[in-house]
Amino acid sequence: MGQNLILNMNDKGFNVVAYNRTTSKVDDFLANEAKGTKIQGAHSIQELCQKLKAPRKVILLVKAGQPVDDFIAQLVPHLEKGDLIIDGGNSHFPDTERRAKELAAKGLLFVGSGVSGGEEGARHGPSLMPGGSPEAWPLIKDIFQATAAKTKDGEACCDWVGEGGSGHYVKMVHNGIEYGDMQVLAEAYSLLKDILKLSHDEMGQIFEEWNNDVLDSFLIEITRDILKFKDTDGSPLVEKIRDAAGQKGTGKWTAISALDMGTPVTLIGEAVFARCLSSLKDERVAASKILKGPEGVTFSGDKKAFIEDIKQAVYASKIISYAQGFMQLREAAREHNWNLNYAEIALMWRGGCIIRSAFLGDITNAFRKNKDLKNLLLDEFFTKAIHKAMPSYRRVVSQASLLGVPVPCLSTALSFYDGYRSAKVPANLLQAQRDYFGAHTYELDTQPGTWVHTNWTGRGGRVASSTYQV
Ligand code: 6PG
């Protein structure tokens, strides 16, 4: 990925020096991919820093965690005040906040930048989400915006996110949404295969059609290709892959942060748990021989209509997932004092990254129309879209449930929607239960802010416990 980003920056006319601690890799790169370019190589960190013009801009693309700290420690002695270190890995945002503070104390600038799009993106235009020392932005703006992907209208999928760890936070939420999108598509595949019994070519064709409409996106595109892909024996390769999903942690961090802030980001949380459940492969195989699902029931409806229902369910759940993702960003901005621009964030994700889609253009429009939009679901375009999709969405979740096909993300997002649109939810009973067994007190609906305790049994005391919220 580092090599591709270097080649991309060189194509845009910037002078780049490549360094890798395995110096033979630098020589190999210069003799092959970088041959005939202006790219220079360095065999030591000292040489790298000598070859760069001040203020130096050094971008690290190393594994998140200790390797980033180790690299920074090696770089610092060779840098001068005003130089800039950029971490382009998937670092956890609290680490980025800490590094920005530590380096500021040394007079150095620091940027934690989300970089999305994999190898391809790095070469031809990634989505870049930089945040950190505000003085760093003018130093890298031209390089980053020239290197980044562009939308159809020529806008760069890169802008300044904000201070501290905000760039890496936005990338983390991008990855959480990526987990959600992928799981929803996996559920759609399972519905098409297990309920409608479609062949892989038929499924591939459906994804192809979906890609020409509101679901137009990179993940739909690659799913189409994966479904159509045949192994050397002519059978679909996807069916030979063990159904146990891996994860590097960014989805989990997103869910943990949402829980920490008390933001109901249910679809991403469920997508992480779905990966966890998938990885219990041996346990599931054993349980499948004991635990029964619905028996003797098969789908008897109109196949074509149900395929359209699944498409609508995917679209509606996606609207809910992004609404939740932006709720999380809004809460994080409040908590960390970041001034996030949601329209620009949607634009940064519009091209280059893994969740790139036409749909993100609609989100940019919604936030450009109203930058204080409280929830994406309340934007007129999305309210209409979700109302239209709802009958289909409900049919899909109920069919899946009746036939025993797991759709964790589709169903959790539907429940969130029904909860969010309810003026009254049953939490009054929870409050009564808390007060009953623990004298935790409750508020009366007519008097919010006034805390009351009831002696529910006549045996409890009159004294309420002190109340607090986490
Ligand atoms: C990207 C991706 C990338 C991440 C993969 C793998 O934006 O280019 O998000 O950063 O490495 O998504 O993540 P998991 O291994 O956790 O699925």
From TrEMBL:
Transmembrane segments: none annotated. InterPro entries: 6-PGluconate_DH-like_C_sf, 6PGD_dom2, 6PGDH_C, 6PGDH_Gnd/GntZ, 6PGDH_NADP-bd, 6PGdom_BS, NAD(P)-bd_dom_sf, Pgluconate_DH. PANTHER family: 6-PHOSPHOGLUCONATE DEHYDROGENASE. Residues 167-457 form the 6-phosphogluconate dehydrogenase C-terminal domain. SMART domains: 6PGD (SM01350). Pathway: Carbohydrate degradation; pentose phosphate pathway; D-ribulose 5-phosphate from D-glucose 6-phosphate (oxidative stage): step 3/3. The active site is at residues 171, 178. It catalyses: 6-phospho-D-gluconate + NADP(+) = D-ribulose 5-phosphate + CO2 + NADPH. Gene3D superfamilies: 6-Phosphogluconate Dehydrogenase, domain 3, N-(1-d-carboxylethyl)-l-norvaline Dehydrogenase, domain 2, NAD(P)-binding Rossmann-like Domain. It comes from Rhizophlyctis rosea. NCBIfam families: gnd, PRK09287.1. Catalyzes the oxidative decarboxylation of 6-phosphogluconate to ribulose 5-phosphate and CO(2), with concomitant reduction of NADP to NADPH. It is an enzyme of class 1 (oxidoreductase). Belongs to the 6-phosphogluconate dehydrogenase family. It holds the Pfam family 6PGD. PROSITE patterns: 6PGD (PS00461). This is 6-phosphogluconate dehydrogenase, decarboxylating. It comes from the Eukaryota. Its EC number is 1.1.1.44. Substrate binds at residues 90, 116-118, 174-175, 179, 248, 275, 434, 440.
